[in-house]
Amino acid sequence: MPDTICNTSPLIALDNIGLLGLLEGVYGRVLVAEEVRNEFGSGLPGWIDVVPVQNRNLIRALQLSIDLGESATLALAMERQDARVILDDLKGRKAAQRLGVSFTGLLGVAIKGKQMGVIESVDNVMTRLKQEAPTQSVGASWGEPQGAQR
After folding, report:
1. CATH of 3-147 given 1.10.1200, 3.30.70, 3.40.50, 3.30.450
2. Helix, strand or coil, per DSSP, at residue 6
3. Are the CB atoms for 136 and 130 separated by under 8 Å?
């Protein structure tokens, strides 16, 4: 099974609606870069492993077009043999696509959670996310699973 690496925004969004555990239910262990842990700001559960990114130059290069958390998330994915990332930002998704990194969004996580019996309703999760973060573009940034396969 590929490593699952999560960016900050999906962690915060799921934590805000009390569903951070959805990630554990779907993926088991989840990795985050140190920068993502710092952006998250509070303690992470034990099933989330914090991993340092070795390629600091790649982070700096990616920061020319995307934020620090996304840059570190994608750099960490590039360092792993087989990884998928959870991103919700359109610029981050485009960068992942350019790099050939497999990715999904919160809608993809919710769909997989429903298929696995972790949640009862995708609609309920998405409605709660929209209510908690109404400025997010659910269609574009929390879209269906997609991305290049490595």
Report:
1. 3.40.50
2. strand
3. yes
Handedness of CA 74, 76, 82, 88 (dihedral sign): negative
Q: b or e along 71-101 (b: 16 or more beta carbons within 10 Å of the residue's beta carbon)?
A: bbbbbbbbbbeebbbbbbbeebbebbeebeb
Residue type, 126: M
Paired tokens of 98:
């350019």
Query: CA 81, CA 78: separation in Å to the nearest integer?
Result: 8
Give the largest Cα separation in the chain, rounded.
Answer: 43
Cβ burial 26-47 (10 Å sphere, 16+ → b, else e): bbeebbbbebbbebbeeebeee
**Which of 23, 24, 76 lies closest to 53, judged by CA?**
76
Q: What is the pLDDT along the chain (150 residues), one digit of tens a residue?
A: 789 999 999 999 999 999 999 999 999 999 999 999 999 988 899 999 999 999 999 999 999 999 999 999 999 999 998 999 999 999 999 999 999 999 999 999 999 999 999 999 999 999 999 887 655 544 444 444 444 332
Would strands 102-104 and 48-51 be described as parallel, antiparallel, or unpaired?
unpaired
